[in-house]
Design brief:
heterodimer, A: alpha/beta, 4-stranded parallel β-sheet, B: 8-stranded mixed β-sheet, 6-stranded parallel β-sheet
């Protein structure tokens, strides 16, 4: 008797209509995005950094929560696809005047938006928007650019792109994610992507106050001791520690956090010699990562940013080519 | 006015009756059950062939949203929903605006309900002024105005001393304190059961210990004060274990559960379905199974609809921002019957009579109300329903102004055909619907 919950991000042919989460995607979906991204990586090095794949299309960046970096990379990605980009900082706009979220969406859809890139502080907000559009304007696509603690799928995909670039094969890797897993949408998206791509061992490292329950059901091994957790890993993904979490009931201080969980050259040495160090940015040097590591030869933090543009181009161009 | 209901299957758990027989109503009261009283000549006869004739349902928690939230629902709309759901007696929590902490407000609500003249409305008074958990309300005055108990609704009391005093004071006059056990701090701001699903969806959690810690506190205070407590909407297996022990110990405690929690779990949140945003949150399969079993072994006394009409503006929001609650008055009967049916499927022995008891006389006993029976001389509040009629849950078919329920799209068995209040046929389902 239970209602069948149709997966709102797929159309009836199982193709990506929206990108809301990595959870539930097939390996073939992810491979297709990463393969498409690799064809875009070279474009940024050309003299004319544009392809006409989304010429005449309008992409609306709807950021209900502050972001500079993610919004900028989406904007660049849109422009390199020749789309028109409209940035809306919604906090300063209509919702403060009492207009509901779905009213805002209806109004923007009426302006012939082709795609919404949505960031929202509430987990699941892009789902509500996508489900609403599936009922009302099924030609409009939604890309989740980060919702609450739930998902940040394009970050997860660019992390996979980066790992694939340096490590080639996912099926023999140990990957450690370090830090505030509890509040991290990046961690959730990375975990789903890594397990889907066949990574045999995904580790989460942090104090009990920052590890959510149920990680084992997601196929993750948890460690509270960073030395044990980093032993022989191939990839280290550091998470940003938000300022508001640094002192209070979750952690006593940034200093103690760095002492217990900061990535130092000594700790990095416990990983495999060719291990790579990733970070979604922005980094807190001296809190979660030592500058010697952040600027060291094993860090691939800046390539992540470059790949991020190609991955977002891939996601947007694939969605734009999908029809409900 | 004399009413003759003939050929129905009369199910009256309080009197151990389950038989096809006739029911006779004279001047708003049950006059006879079985053979007609001497000289009875019916003014109206209802043929209840194929139907169950049961006491009108008693719902221990139905928010009518008056006063203060008339944009969400009104007494007229919600009491009509009660009629369509077969609910003839309902208890409403005090979290209105203003809250029911003054006798005048309670009298006004009772007065409005009398004018609408459908279900019997029994308010709970606020345990503390404004539900703020600081000062006690005038419980004696509120009782005189019509309150049948005192509650904090969804507002936990931060200062345990105040809760202790409130229980001492209630005990003085023999009032029952209605509490939904919830720690004021742990799980605050949470929107879903703490578990793998909440972790995956990135929703902040309400752990089971939010309920169990509060239960430990309440039981200690009961031991110290001797107050009688009714526990509302228990959600967890661990909570039920504590309650089972407390009942065994002899503490004067009764328990209800919300009807959603008999059938749904956190997995029904699916892709952030805000219709499944409820308070307390839907918990795990194990918790749900424990609730169903605790009803069967009488650890849980009653099932309530937890009727909470929420309008579109407050529901069509991201999950964490959506208002909790679902419409329930019109689903209470069918979902309670489903509990019995599912139990039989699992090899258990849950009869129709046991199911009806949980929403009639056992619920009335909890609330200290003279209702929920078909005893001769009792008020003639009766529901006639077809236990096999299947119907589709659709927002537009509901009389309640609240159209949101996680059961939208479900087909349920058990449909009310007529509802009789104090001997008057207050609702009859039009033929063919």
């Amino acid at each position: 008797m239970p209602i069948l919950h149709n997966n709102p991000q797929l159309n009836k042919n199982g193709e990506l209509q929206h990108l809301l989460t990595i959870e539930g995607l097939k390996k073939s979906h992810i491979d297709h995005i990463l393969d498409t991204a690799s064809s875009f990586v070279g474009i940024s090095d050309r003299e004319v950094k544009k392809v006409p794949l989304m010429r005449g299309k309008s992409v609306f960046n709807l950021f209900f929560e502050n972001s500079t970096r993610t919004r900028t990379t989406f904007e660049i990605a849109s422009k390199r696809l020749s789309a028109d980009v409209i940035n809306l900082n919604i906090q300063a706009s209509s919702t403060t005047k009492g207009e509901s979220l779905l009213d805002t969406i209806d109004n923007l859809a009426a302006m012939h938006a082709d795609m919404f890139v949505v960031r929202h502080a509430q987990s699941g907000a892009p789902y509500m928007i996508a489900q609403h559009l599936n009922r009302t304007r099924s030609d409009v696509h939604v890309v989740n650019a980060g919702d609450g603690r739930h998902a940040h799928p394009t970050q997860g995909l660019l992390d996979m792109y980066t790992i694939r670039h340096y490590k080639k094969d996912f099926t023999n890797l140990r990957v450690a994610i370090v830090g505030d897993i509890l509040h991290s949408r990046v961690a959730r998206s990375d975990i789903h992507a890594l397990t889907t791509l066949g990574v045999p061992e995904v580790r989460a490292i942090g104090p009990h106050t920052l590890l959510p329950g149920g990680l084992d059901q997601m196929g993750v091994r948890t460690f509270t001791n960073i030395e044990e957790g980093l032993k022989d890993v191939d990839v280290i993904i550091m998470l940003r520690l938000q300022n508001e979490r640094m002192s209070g009931a979750l952690l006593p201080s940034a200093q103690e956090y760095f002492k217990s969980y900061g990535l130092t050259p000594e700790r990095l040495a416990l990983a495999k010699p060719d291990a790579i160090v990733m970070h979604p940015g922005p980094m807190n040097r001296g809190v979660e990562i030592d500058s010697a590591v952040a600027d060291g030869s094993q860090a691939v933090i800046l390539p992540q940013v470059t790949f991020g543009i190609a991955v977002r181009m891939a996601v947007m161009s694939i969605l734009a080519g999908t029809h409900a | 006015m004399k009413l003759h209901i003939k050929n129905g299957r009369v199910v009256d758990p309080a009197n151990g009756i389950d038989a096809v027989q006739d029911l006779f109503i004279v001047d708003g009261k049950i006059a006879a059950n079985g053979a007609a009283p001497n000289g009875f000549a019916a003014d109206q006869t209802i043929d209840a062939s194929g139907l169950v004739v049961a006491p009108g349902l008693v719902d221990l928690s139905a928010r009518l949203r008056e006063p203060g939230y008339e944009y969400k629902a009104t007494l007229e709309s919600e009491l009509q929903a009660a009629m369509q759901g077969g609910v003839t007696t309902l208890v409403c929590p005090p979290d209105t605006d203003p809250v029911l902490d003054e006798p005048g407000l309670v009298e006004m609500l009772k007065h409005r309900a009398r004018i609408v003249d459908q279900a019997n409305v029994h308010p709970l008074g606020a345990l503390t002024v404004g539900l703020r958990g600081q000062a006690l309300t005038e419980m004696a005055e509120l009782t005189e105005a019509g309150c049948i108990g005192f509650a904090q609704a969804e507002e936990p009391i931060l200062d345990t001393t105040v809760l202790q005093r409130a229980m001492q004071y209630a005990k003085t006059f023999g009032y029952t304190v209605w509490l939904r056990p919830q720690d004021p701090h742990i799980g605050r701001g949470g929107v879903a059961h703490s578990g793998p699903l909440a972790s995956r969806l990135g929703l902040s959690g309400v752990p089971v210990m939010s309920e169990t810690i509060a239960l430990h506190t309440i039981f200690e205070l009961m031991r110290a004060t001797g107050a009688r407590v009714h526990l509302c909407r228990i959600s967890s297996a661990a909570g039920l274990d504590l309650i089972r022990a407390a009942k065994k110990e002899g503490l004067p405690v009764t328990v209800d559960v919300g009807v959603h929690h008999l059938h749904m779990t956190d997995a029904d949140i699916g892709f952030f379905d805000s219709n499944a945003r409820l308070t307390p949150p839907l918990r795990s399969q194990r918790d749900r199974d424990a609730i169903c079993a605790a009803l069967a072994d009488n650890t849980v006394d009653a099932i309530c609809s937890d009727h909470t009409p929420v309008d579109d503006d407050e529901k069509l929001l991201p999950f964490g921002e959506a208002s909790p609650g679902a419409t329930g008055l019109e689903l209470l009967l069918a979902l309670t019957l489903k509990w019995a049916q599912d139990g039989r499927k699992d090899g258990g022995n849950r009869g129709l009579s046991q199911a009806i008891a949980k929403i009639t006389h056992q619920a009335a006993q909890v609330a200290g109300l003279n209702a929920g029976t078909l005893s001769v001389g009792a008020a003639a509040d009766v529901v006639l329903f077809d236990p096999d009629a299947r119907w589709l849950v659709e927002g537009r078919a509901l009389a309640s102004q609240g159209k949101h329920t996680p059961f939208i799209g479900y087909e349920l068995a058990g449909q009310v055909k007529a509802t009789i209040v104090r001997g008057r046929v207050a609702y009859q389902r039009p033929a063919g619907r």
